[in-house]
Amino acid sequence: MSEVLDVAKKDGRWTECPSCSEIIITKKLQENMWVCPHCEFHFRIGAKQRIDLVCDEGSFTAIHLEEHDADDLGAEAEEVLWGGTATIGGSQCVLGVMEFSYKGGSMGVLLGQYIILLMKKAQQSACPLIVICASGGVRIQEGIWGLLQMLRTSNARNATRDVPMITVFTDPTTGGVSASFASLADILLAEPGARIGFAGPRVIESTMKCTLPPDFQDSEKLLANGFLDRIVHRHDLKNSLSLFLRWF
Amino acid sequence: MKKNDRFNDIDNALKELQESISQLEGVDKDEIARKVKQFREEIYTGISRWSSVELARHVDRPVLDDYISAIFTDFIELHGDRVYEDDQAVKGGLAFLDDIPVVVIGHRKRSSHLKDYIRHHYGMANPSGHYKTMRLLRLAEKFRRPVITFVDTPGAYPLPEAEYKGQAYSIAQCIAAIAGIRTPVVACIIGEAGSGGALALGFGDRIIMLENAFYSSISPEGYSSIIYGDINNRELAADTLKGTGKDLFREGIVNHLVTEPTGGAHNDPETVIKEVSRMIRHYVRELVDMDLDELLRIRAEKIDRLIPLG
Known about the structure:
The complex is a heterodimer. By secondary structure, chain A is an alpha/beta fold. Chain A has helices spanning about 1-10, 25-30, 45-55, 75-80, 110-125, 145-160, 200-210, 220-225, 235-245; strands at about 15, 25, 60, 80-90, 90-100, 130-135, 165-175, 185-190, 230. Chain A has 9 helices and 9 strands. The longest helix of chain A is centred in the middle third of the chain and has 16 residues, at about 110-125. In chain A, about 50% of the residues are buried. Chain B is an alpha/beta fold. Chain B has 2 domains: about 1-45; about 50-310, 2-enoyl-CoA Hydratase, Chain A, domain 1 (Alpha-Beta Complex). Chain B has helices at about 5-25, 30-45, 50-55, 65-70, 125-140, 160-165, 165-180, 195-200, 220-230, 235-240, 245-250, 270-290, 290-305; strands at about 75, 90-95, 100-105, 145-155, 185-195, 205-210, 215, 255-260. The two termini of chain B are about 40 Å apart. Chains A and B meet through helix 5, helix 6 and helix 7 of A and helix 6, helix 7, helix 8, helix 9 and helix 13 of B.
């Protein structure tokens, strides 16, 4: 039996839930928006899938970073963040969705630039901005410039503060993204069980020589401590977002 | 914190040697002193970026209290974040810069003449340190007083409790507050300046930085661990991060570079602090005369241009 299971897992027909270890038929999981039907664990999903889940069908139109360089750095920024205009439940918005699987969703100079562009677009078109975050923080390979994007994006948020903004934290959002523009939104939402924080658990454990409770940066803990407005189940995200958009 | 053994050892050994030789009869003390000076200069000339990091962390490096007492008069410390505690890693208050009333906020790694690092958790701020910063910034803004910040921190405090109190949120609030504050800000980068914790205090209309201070998104050890799997490549990491005063001055991020004496700022703290003091006075005088809207417009442009040249 276990051999059959391994084969089925390997070819992707079945998926094991990392939380409750139940074996789920992948197609079922997909139909359930990559939420475990047994324990409600929210699997990490890509930007493209998220756009399909929250936007009205066919409404997403990409906004391109104008300064595509010859070395395709601009294109790279668009791999880390999918930005565009869309409607959600009929309401217009500018949407940015981060892709954690691409370089840890890290924020370098061009990603900073792209986020600023989305803020400006939202202001110009007088519609709300929604950012669905997933990031390990600033791109350390860019040295001080990565760090300075926290300042640049925060300053851009200051300059566009009249734009209604919603941040949706997904697993994981840590470091420079959670400690800059993402936390400056009017509404802070998160998916259940997402790890959200500043310092990652490995940094804390190695620096402070302590062991951490497994739930210490979970959305539920953040909600209890007062740093989130709501936790929103993936099944309800589209509906929730459309309500906020109507309210703005 | 590990002691910076290498530089301490070199300096102590030279001092001992100089003293023992001087006690011998028939030696020219001045000649010995001259040779030792020459030797020290050879050791420290063109030091690596990693050596700058070590000097930035040196146990004898001048700290916040040294700067405050030498530069300002009538400093009155204001405690507490108005939410739940008084963070010991961030110190702030009111003071006078000659006749100009100002607000001073900085990371306090230790007190002058004391090695009380533990009490001040090495200058690593809790969220309460950032909330304290926020409320002092608001105070400065209300009374239109210039703000002078001093940055000397390995980073924000990486504690579970700090996470529970909103470390990321508190840093974001500080960064946005400094970017938008309607009063002039002069930032002085005097030692370590690590990550978002440094950025929370580490920007202003003018930035003064010491030659061997090190400003980066992550420590060289952290960078080495993430990229190479262990801390053994920290020297290479320091070269990649390019975070010394010279580096940031070259990139146009820093307005004024304060050169340090051979062997680091602790070898002649008076001269270093005097130079920082001179530039703070120069910049504050320049900034208080500016129209506030104009100041904010220029600041926004400056932030906008914080991308690498070419």
